[in-house]
Amino acid sequence: MTVFIIAYLKKTNFLKVFFLLCFFSQQIFAGEISIKDIALKKNEKNSYLIFNHDINFSGDALLALKKGIPISMRLSLQIKEKHKFWFDKKLFAEEKFYQLRYRNLLEKYQINFNETNTIYFDNIDDIRTNLYNLEWNLGELNLSDSSEIYLIIELDQSKLPKQLLINLNDESWDMKAEATKFYRELL
Asked: What is the pLDDT of residue 29?
């Protein structure tokens, strides 16, 4: 078997094969988060930011989740009022977390949005459909046309177990999505 492999590598350029394997292995095992839509909804009192995001776990992250290791996601939201000739004014800044984990005894996936709100699902695809239309209460916030909304969703690597922190150079743990929208675009 090795005779055939060595004969093949002698005929083709070894560096080309090596780089192709490296490129495709990174594309296959990399996890991804994407922010689909951002919308702003106003009530009589409060404003709500509604957004959809999709998480594609793959590689080590999916394997860790299936083994019951909790994976925490950090949601960061900042709203700033842009000024041309002065510093930007920060109107709103907040971070939220939610945690994904697989419960082995129940054979179900669990999402914790906070300590009181826990939802169970049968498979990963059900989790993806539930992550649509998340609402963020902004309170009584007066936004102008120059207001800019920054939303960042990322894997919180600081809450991973110590054994997985050794392997953080693997690209399957680099999951992050950023979105920037002006207030006038959301109307």
From this structure: 41
Domain of 140? Answer: 31-186
Residue 166 has pLDDT above 80, yes or no: no
The mean pLDDT of 4-22, rounded to a whole number, is 55
DSSP states along the chain? -HHHHHHHHHHS-HHHHHHHHHHHHHHHH--EEEEEEEEEEE-SS-EEEEEEEEEE--THHHHHHHTT--EEEEEEEEEEE--SSSPPEEEEEEEEEEEEEEETTTTEEEEESSSS-EEEESSHHHHHHHTSSEEEEEES----TTEEEEEEEEE-GGGS-HHHHTTTTSGGG--EEEEEEEHHHH-
- Position 138 pLDDT exceeds 80: yes
Q: Tell me if 110 is assigned to some domain.
A: yes
CB atoms within 10 A of CB 131: 19
Tally of domains in the chain: 1
Question: pTM for this one?
Answer: 0.72
Structure-model confidence comparison of residues 139 and 4, the more confident one: 139
